[in-house]
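Listing S7. Sequence submitted for prediction.
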Amino acid sequence: MQLARAQVLSVTPPTASGDSVGAEAARTPDALPVDLDFLDDPLEWSAFSHAVTGCPGTWESSLVIEGMHCAACSVTVEDALLQTPGVLSVQVSAASHRAKIVWAQNQVLPSAWLAAVTAVGYRAVPANDMFASKRRRIETRQALWRWLVAGLCMMQVMMYAYPAYIAAPGDLTAEMERLLRWASWVLTLPVIMFSCGPFFKAALRDVSRGRISMDLPVALGIAITFAVSSLGTFAPEGIFGREVYFDSLTMFVFFLLTGRWLELRLRDKTAGALEALMNRLPDNVERQLPDGSFNRVAARRIAVGDVLRVHPGETFPADGFITAGATSVDEALMTGESRPVARAAGMPVMCGSHNLGGTVIVRVDCVGASTRYAQIVALMDSAASSKPHSAQIADRLAKPFLVGVLVAAALACAWWWERDPGHALMVAVAVLIVTCP
């Protein structure tokens, strides 16, 4: 399974990072990378999917969707997947960045719906991808750096803006005021060019694909505020006036990044616990051959009736009965019992429990989705990707709401434009940024 996960990672192109292969796949969704074809092998499906009980030929897959930031993003991914022939149902959670897909194997294969996600500008990887935690750590570290830069620049900009707030008329000369504004402009540049990178990148991605997400009004508000403030600094006698808002701009970005960083930390902690559970099983096991010797095979290839040899420190890959040997087993995950449980010949062992004592021979009685371990994982995965009815309604209203906000901002700007263009733009900005939760 580890090999399959690594291959999935290597062939799922990250369009957000500017990867040329990913950009090409996004432009031409029908042109799938050849390497994705290996996912169409049914032997690989068990790494990220399970068969739906009572529906022959129907599978349910769990994915992590990377690059989402709001409810409108989850709706975009859902719509892209539902438009893929053969996909029966989709549920995408913007909070946990997880998706659950039900699909018919005689109509569509995994490479097709993975490409559909890539085509709309996001990245889909199996929920138990071996490198998911590493990518989350990198994302969290980058978010922390952006937050630190925004925080440091915000404090310095506030220091330069403070004299203008407390100075009496005539206290600040024109040269001093101009110098403070220039200093604020210089310190705002790192915030715009580095800290605001994710907002602008996501907004450009959505605009290029004719979509709207929460990043678009935020990016517009930041860009307009910076433009008006820059014109107020360089051309104070122009139509946009002398007012500058560098302090408000940097503070707004800092608070936005604070919220996103906290969200990343919370999601990382939740996803880490779930991944630790999902990756609990071994990748390979020792299976007995007809001549009585043992050979290591992939864990997904074991079947009911196989005889396995499980050594101390290994995890039982399936439900079964011990036929030889004795050991103690950690079943805390399955039963809640904190103390090791003694197991000997003729006694059952459960998939997902740890062998703590000696080497035992086990005859497999139950594999795959029918094990208790798989049922526990399925329940936790369902809880992570499911949404209450109220959240589903909110997701569907997100896009019309954002369209209404953009229209309201444009109307407000038009209403005030003849009186004061600079004030008109800032009124529009106020309408835009109020949409950000």
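Caption to Listing S7: primary sequence and predicted structure tokens for the chain studied. The chain is about 50% helix and 15% strand. Residues 134-276+401-433 form one domain.
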